[in-house]
Amino acid sequence: MAETESFGVDPVQKNKAREILLVLVNAVSAAKLFPPDHQTVVNFISDLHERLTGFLGEYWKLELGIEENAFTLGQEKIYEDLHPAKSLPFFFFKDGMQKLYFYKGMSRDELRGFLETVRAVSQLPPEEGDIVNALWERDFANIRYLAPDDFLETRIGVGRPALRPTVDRNALERGRIELTPEDNEEMEQAITSLQKADSEETIRDERPGAEMISSIEASASDQGMEGIDTLLQSSRRASPEDEYLNLVVELIYLEDRADQFPVVADVLEQYYKEIMGRKDFVKATSLLGTLRELSNRFSKKDAAKSEWIGSVLSRLRNKNVLVDLKETLDLDKVGDMEGLLSYLKLFGASAAGLLADIFERARSAQWREKALGLLTEIGRDNFEALGDLIQETRPSLSQHIIRLFREDQDKSCVTILAKVVSFRNPAIKLAAIRALGEASDAASQKILLGFLADTDEDIRIASLDNLHKVEDKSVLSHICGLVLDKKFARKSAREKRAVFNVFSRSDSEEACRFLAGILGKVSFLPRPKRTELSLYAVSALAGMKHPSSLEALRKGAKRHHLKIRRACLEALEEISTIPVTPTGRIPQ
Amino acid sequence: MTHSPEGRSRPEKAKELHRLAVEMITRLNVILKGARIYEPNNLLFLRQVNRLLTLLRKVLEESGEACFAVRGGTVFFNNIRLKYGFANYHFFKFVLEEFRKNKLGAIRFEPGVTEEDVKAMMILWAKGEARETDPFDSLAAEARTRGVGHISLEKMLPTDLTKSKEESAAKVFFLGMTHLEEAFASRESEEKIQLGTTRRLMQSIFNHISDHESFIQGLTNIKNFHEYTLNHSMNVCLLSVALGRRLGLDRNELVDLGISAFFHDFGKLDTPKEILDKPGKLDDREREIIEKHPFQGAGKLVQFREFKGLPVQAIQVALEHHVKEDMTGYPRYFRKQSVNLFSKIVKIADFFDAVTTPRVYRTKHFTRDEALSMMAAQSVSEFHPLLLREFIKMMGLYPVGSLVAMDSRELGIVVEGNPDPAHFFRPRVKIIADSTGNKRDGEIVDLSEIEPETKGYMRTIVRVLDPDKYGIRVADYFLARAI
Question: Which of A472, B73, B221, B320 could lock B474 by a disulfide, CB 3.0 to 4.6 Å apart?
Answer without folding.
Answer: B221
